[in-house]
Each structure stands twice: as C-alpha cells, then as structure tokens.
C-alpha cells in the first residue's frame, strides 16, 4: 500500500517479510489501517469486533502507535483497535488463507468478518492464524485487531524506554498455502558439507508426498518420499550433502539459496514425475529459503589451558558492538529494507565482525542482511522488568522458544543471550533486592533448556555486569571504566581471575568452567561521574582495544555502542546515522577505525601518551596479536617512524625497520622499539606498521609523547628569537562570556567579541637585524553549551537511562561534543596594533583523538574537562610596514576578533570551506561561532601564542 505522510509518499515495507522462508502467494497488509484508542475498554461490549473502531483516524502499519512513522505518535498504554478491509484470493483453489503477524505488543485478538479467529500474547514472537473458514474469497473482508499493552511487570519489554513498542510493530501479511504445507524447515550444517534437515508439515489431507530440496549452487537435488497421516502436524527428517562446501564467514558470507517443495498426491493418485511436479490430482507448496555452512565452537587451541572461540575450526577474535536496533522515527521498527541493509553495511564498513543485538529479537530482514553481508550476531532475548514470578517465567519461555525456532536458520547468529545484567531476576526479600538461589537455579535450567532447543550455538545464561554467571558457554563481563591505568589494571585482573574453578564473575555458590573469556559491554560512558555525556570516544577506544589485544586469553569485545540513542551519545555513529570523526588518520594515513578491528594487530605496550624530555630515548614493547592465518609462515616488515609537527611542518626524527616471522595464532612479543625524541618542545608520534614485502599495510598502531622542556616560553628549533604568551593572559576581552579550562591552558570566548594581548618583545631590536615577525597560535571555534553558561546543569544520577529518560547532552558537565559531520564554524580576524592583518575560517570546535594534550592533561579521571578538544594551527605574518613601530615600542598589541553574525564573515567561511551541508542547525543563526585558544598543555600543538622574530 502506498502511504503519504508529511508530503512524503512511500510503499510501506513492500518486500516479503521472511526471506528465509518465502512464499510467492502473499498479500502485503502494511500501510494505512483505521485506528482508535479505547481508553474505557468499551469496544468488546459494542460492535467493534464486527465493524471496527469508530472514527476516521488512520495508522501506518507496522509502526508502533507511539512512533512518529505510525502517524499517531502517542505513547498511550492500554487498548488500541485496528481495522482494514481487504479483497484477496489465494492462488490455490482449495488452499488455506493464513494471516501472519511479525509481532504485536502485547496481547492481540483478531476477528475476520466478525468471527474471532484467534489470539496471541507476547510482544516479540511471530504468530499465524488460519482464517480460511472466515475468509470470503470472492468479496471484501474486514480484519479487526484489538491490542492491549499495559506494561505489566511480567511482560517481556526489553529496552523500550528509548521508544515504546505498542501494538502492531512488525509486518502483517496474508499468505496462500495448499491444504498440506510446510510449517518449518530447519538446517543443521557440518563442515564436510553434510546438511541435516528436519521440519514440520501441516496436514489437512492424508496422502503420499514427495519433499524435494533444490540448491543449484551446491549441486543439491534431493528428494524424500513421505506418507502423510490424518490431519495434524507431521515431522520429517532427512539429510543431503554439498560437495566441496564453501563455508560461511564474515569474510565470505556465502549462502546456498534454493527451494524446498512439498508435492502431495491424494491416495490413489499417480506418482509425481521425475521433476517432482504433482499431477492434476495433487498440490504443491513451495518455499524459497537458504542456509550457510558454518560451525561455531569453543575449544582449547594448541595446548592452551583455556578455550577460544572457533569459527569453522579456526580461532576468531570478535570485534563487536552493541546494537540497540533503534530508529528515531520508527523506534524498534525500521522504515525500509534499505535502511536495514545499510545498518549491516555500516557495521562492516568499520571492520567489525560481530554485533550484539540488544534485548530485542531482530527483524528477520535485518538478520537476512547480516547473513548476506556477513556479520556474526549475538542475539539477546527480551527481558521482563518485574520480579521473576511464575507468570513472568512462563511468558519469557514462550517467547524465547518462538524466537529460537524463528531464527534457527540464520548462519549469522552464533550465540543466544538469555538474560542481560540480571534484569528481571531480582526479588524483593526483607526490603532487599536479592538474586535468590531459586532464581539462579531457574536461570541455569533456562541455559540448559536453550542448549536442548539449539545445540548448534553457544548459549549465555546472563550477560553479566554483576559478576553473577551460573552456567554459560561464554564467560563474559561488562565494564565501563575511564582512564588508561584503570582500564589496563581491570582487564589484566579479569584475565588473571579466569580459570576453571575460579569464583570471579560467577554468582555465589557457582564457579567458572573453562568457557572462553569475552567482554560483552565496554566503554567509558558510565566510567565517568554522571556519564561521559557527548564527548570524544576515540582516545579511550584506542587504548582500550590495545589492552584487549594484549591478552592471549581474551576472545573479543562488544563496544557500547553502534550508534547514539536518545539518551546515550557513545556510538560510532550519531542517532541519525551520520559519521563521527575519530581522527586517527591524522597520526598516519594507514590508521582508521578499521585498523583496530583487524584480525592481525600490533600492540604497543604503554600509555597513549607519556611526558618525556627533549632528546630522551624511549623504549616501547611491541606485541603481535594474530587471529587469522592469512600471513602465517611469512616474513613481514615491521616499519616504524617518529614524527612531530614543527610549526606546520612535519618532521621525522627517527625511523627503522626489521623483518619479523609472522606465525601462529594468539599473542606473542615482537621485541622493543627504541627511538630518540625531538630536541624541542613537541608532540611526538610513534607510528608502527606491519607490511607485506610489497608494502601493503597489514596492521598499524601509534602512541604519543609530550616532549616537555620545562623552559618558560618553550624550547623550539627556530632561528632568531621567540616570545610566548599564555592564552589566558589577555588584557581585555569584550566577549559576553569567557572562561578558562584545562588548568588555564585553554581560554574560551563565547559568540562575538574581541580579546587583546599586550605582547612585550624584549630584545627585539635592532631593526636592521629583523626580517619579519610571524605569530603562531592554535585556535578553534567555540560552541557554547548550556553547561558552559552555568545554567541547568543536569543531575544524571536522578535519571533512569535504562527506562529512557531524555536529557540534553549539552547540560552534562562532562560533555564536549565529539567531532562529526555537523560543523560549528567561526570567522576570526587578526589585528596587530589596530590594523587587520589576517582573517581565517575556524571550521569547527572539534574533539577527538587529535586533542592529545587536552586528554593527557585532564585534571581528573572520573570527570572530563573539554577532553580531546583541539584547534587549527594559525600562522600570521605581520606586514613589514608595521615592524619599525613594533621595534620602537618593544612590543605589539595582538587582537583576535570574532565579528557579529551579520558581518558576513561566517557566511563567507561556510561558502569557502564547503561547510554548508554540514552546518549545525544553530550555526550562523543569530550568534557567532566564538573562539577557543589553546596553550602549551592543551589541544595538539605544545605551545602558547608564539611570536617569532627572524
């Protein structure tokens, strides 16, 4: 159905909802339905089941009635009614008409032409209704659906605080099937190409049948003869073999696509022909499907006393992220198949091979794209938020079983996560929240029950943040810790405490097996007092991954998170899916986010930045971490160099290379790199690359050093003389708001105004020896956040983020928005002794890994102060006509001005730098972009304002 909303017309989810089990005979019911709330719950007593709800209000299915895309956009608990008139005739003359719902939250009752055809309870599981007796094949039919959603404590709700799932929120469609038809087909694959198949047939007519499997790419043309009993469900089992199987993996996500066909003959009818087609007395049910041949196991490798994860018999390191699977307009329903495809592509683009889909059974079409494009999926079950009552347990098990059955054939799914962070598992006992022994035993039984349902995958009992596993195939833990030393010590502690019999990370009375150790949530966001708000991720992310790859026992991580959500700003991407800029290529062109997600990794064992003296020799241990055999047995080149920026010019001060023999999985030392630091104040960067003999980069990493001379005014390799003035040492400022940060090494100025420095230049003469004066400084725009104006600072502790509380990130005292596609430019004019001598566009107010000094000199670990912020190096040459006067008075007056928004400067800045497409909504809208100046221990250039006479 074509729907028009907000001047936009689109066909609502026109593709078949289940690409893993697709029939050709179907009718899409997505689109506009008549809708009404029933706050007094009077519909049942009136004629609503027959006539539908009164009124002309419409809703767009399949979007939650709380979401904007539904056209309703009201978060209302209670009862909602849907109705739609449909005329449709299935292809099979005497076949069945099946009404299918992807998911409805929470209880649904359905009528067709006034006949109650069925009901379902559970917000995440699919359900089908055979509506054949009520369906009019040659006329109009009225479908009426009553949904109630009261957020009861036993309901499986997941993380709906971001945006409530209410009512129909997954596709709805009609399906035509012959009397005898396939209900389910399950593939269990083996690495030798053997495929075991089982399933269920719905029988309405007894008789003989042939079940055929055709997968041309695998050379499969398999058939089995069946005798169908009286009406009911008939199981079947068979197997076939794919010759020379091509194994599914994230690097090669190969799918065997084909058809399963059920050909039924009534008793006494002729046999089917060789092609498997029934004669006129029979009927055919055909389902298009696919499978991938892959195997996931946890085993010991090469004599290690602990287990690793093996994909297709080889070790794999999981580079993963947490996906809340939330869309700002559709909430937990995606607007289109293309959007779901792009979600998986965005993961692949970052070099990730794993995603944990968080507390939400994923849309089958998004799982299809995970299968098709290649990403490993940890699939969470949705939790309930009340106590583990009998009602909650039974509702949970019913939905979990349905989800496991629905998603069994997706090769991308390698693990089921049954619970998260013990949510819903605490009971109130004597005024305390207690994880009771009875509940622990039940969780253990849930783990074992899931293993019986699906022995082909790993099962995790509870993704633990309270160190409270009971029995699990994965020994995972969560941490949100900020600060290099704290992260290093914590990860090392987790590794040291992981061994069979250890009680670490397990509930009281339970101990570890040798299950693989893996982090399943991590980041800095909750490791900062009051949360990190919207701040740079790149600095912490770099050293955290370096620590993960330093330990042989650790099998992977899940970073929180894929993209921002409504109250968390710690994603690789923004909520609108725009990019964040981590800044890594500035250190070396070979570096990017993908670099740190490669199976071959270079570990540089040390802090991300350390303070050293000019000319000091540093030593950096290097380790290899290898989880691919691509280069095993080969000699590779380990190449390194040290560079620093010298007033706008990159200088290489040390370099070297040697050959290393790259062999074996896991972590091993590669020796030390020894290098001399620059002889002046500098931010030195050590880049290490692993290259093939022909120069292709296999792995790369970097670390930094603040070369600190301690000389007042700095020590620089400059001919002539120089003088320095700190950014905070101004004599006058006319900005409406000004403040210092980072121990006074950064000065901020809001909106429009000017700041003036009186710079004394002792010993500058005589004039005959002076050729020129250049002024260097680091500057950026300054976006003013509410917290900067000291208004409405947010008390984060008072908000329940898990239940979806909304907070402006600009009110968080730790926020300094990370660099992204949005630009906040400012126009800077430079005056010397009252004459304008230069003007420049300051493109943004950025914060990312490039702000090394702003990170290195953070005053506290648990709080952030403009962390990662940095500017752009400015070089201003003073016109020669001004030099005599400057020499005569022995100094100069430097004024840095940001004119008012109407000056036209910022508009020119936006045009000149091509920033218009990326401008923030408030940029240039009545206020200027401000100014930030960075001193010796802030930003990325270790200097104050430097005046150089030469």
From TrEMBL:
<protein>
    <recommendedName>
        <fullName>Beta-galactosidase</fullName>
    </recommendedName>
</protein>
<dbReference type="InterPro" id="IPR036156">
    <property type="entry name" value="Beta-gal/glucu_dom_sf"/>
</dbReference>
<dbReference type="InterPro" id="IPR006104">
    <property type="entry name" value="Glyco_hydro_2_N"/>
</dbReference>
<dbReference type="InterPro" id="IPR051913">
    <property type="entry name" value="GH2_Domain-Containing"/>
</dbReference>
<dbReference type="InterPro" id="IPR008979">
    <property type="entry name" value="Galactose-bd-like_sf"/>
</dbReference>
<dbReference type="GO" id="GO:0004553">
    <property type="term" value="F:hydrolase activity, hydrolyzing O-glycosyl compounds"/>
</dbReference>
<keyword id="KW-0378">Hydrolase</keyword>
<feature type="domain" description="Glycoside hydrolase family 2 catalytic">
    <location>
        <begin position="309"/>
        <end position="472"/>
    </location>
</feature>
<feature type="domain" description="Glycoside hydrolase family 2 immunoglobulin-like beta-sandwich">
    <location>
        <begin position="185"/>
        <end position="294"/>
    </location>
</feature>
<dbReference type="InterPro" id="IPR006101">
    <property type="entry name" value="Glyco_hydro_2"/>
</dbReference>
<dbReference type="Pfam" id="PF02836">
    <property type="entry name" value="Glyco_hydro_2_C"/>
</dbReference>
<comment type="similarity">
    <text>Belongs to the glycosyl hydrolase 2 family.</text>
</comment>
<dbReference type="Pfam" id="PF02837">
    <property type="entry name" value="Glyco_hydro_2_N"/>
</dbReference>
<dbReference type="GO" id="GO:0005975">
    <property type="term" value="P:carbohydrate metabolic process"/>
</dbReference>
<keyword id="KW-0326">Glycosidase</keyword>
<dbReference type="InterPro" id="IPR013783">
    <property type="entry name" value="Ig-like_fold"/>
</dbReference>
<feature type="domain" description="Glycosyl hydrolases family 2 sugar binding">
    <location>
        <begin position="28"/>
        <end position="151"/>
    </location>
</feature>
<dbReference type="Pfam" id="PF00703">
    <property type="entry name" value="Glyco_hydro_2"/>
</dbReference>
<dbReference type="InterPro" id="IPR017853">
    <property type="entry name" value="GH"/>
</dbReference>
<dbReference type="InterPro" id="IPR006103">
    <property type="entry name" value="Glyco_hydro_2_cat"/>
</dbReference>
<dbReference type="InterPro" id="IPR006102">
    <property type="entry name" value="Ig-like_GH2"/>
</dbReference>
